[in-house]
Amino acid sequence: MTRGLVATAAAVVFALAMTAAPFVLSTYWVDVLDSVGIYALLALSLNLILGEAGLYDMGHAAFFAVGAYTTAILTTRLGVPLLLTLPAAALAAGLFAALVALPVLRLRGDYLLIVTVGVGEIVRIALVNDVGSLTGGANGIFGIPRPFLFGLKLRTPEQLFPLIWGAVALTILVFHRLSASRFGRQLRAVREDEVAAEGSGVNTARARLTVFVLGSAWAGMAGTLFAAKMTVVSPESFGFWESVLVFTMVLLGGAGSIPGVLLGAFLVAGLPELFRGLASARMLVFGLALMVMMVVRPGGLWPRRARGAS
Known about the structure:
Layout: H1 3-24, H2 27-52, H3 61-77, H4 86-104, H5 109-128, E1 148-149, E2 152-153, H6 157-180, H7 182-192, H8 194-199, H9 204-230, H10 240-253, H11 258-270, H12 282-296
Antiparallel strand pairs: 1-2
Helix pairs in contact: 2-6, 2-9, 2-10, 2-11, 3-4, 3-5, 3-9, 4-9, 7-9, 10-11
């Protein structure tokens, strides 16, 4: 059986399992899957930046935070229905990403990684210090209303499940099409050899800026769903640790591989719930897992499939 058929079979089984999940699992485990879905959205958005374009973004939680806080402010202070804040959250995160990208994307490799860590910390500190008296300081913003969908107020994990995983399915479809497009090929050319890409007529600066803004805007929309699920946002939810978790999901599953990123999200965000007694050792476990993966399987657990490979 070719790898393509294996992937198709795995996708069908996964879709059927996720369709049945809210009907056969307890509320607790459905809630865990809701969290995994939000992390999957965040990891897929980072995969667009890291896996497709090769840009090392270790401050991705900053754009997640911008989206979540945009939704929190619009819903609690202006009374905007939560799902209508999705475009505003994406726009706010995308504009912030564009502002950051103009100076930052001139850097390469490790230097870019270090600077994006700084960007993430700047956002977290700004939230803690309640800049503009909008963010609520260290306490955050409470009382975010539940979303309405087709007239139904989504209160329970089972009710939120179709919204969150529907967004994941849509994201997979959009990003798969984007990866197969001319723009996707340009991004891979930039990742593999920027000089050669320039020589082939690719505007590498524009490609890098576009993918950085797009991935960050998608993280902002994931922030909206996070706010909908939690009904509260605070700075501690968007620290450096969150960026590390998402980065780990992408690398562990396989940078550039959508199935790999989903697998990474389940392993990093879902598996620890089976071993709650070892929660204090998560950093050690993740660190060891990445070390082993870099040596044994550097492409990740489900690496990217070469175009045209069977």
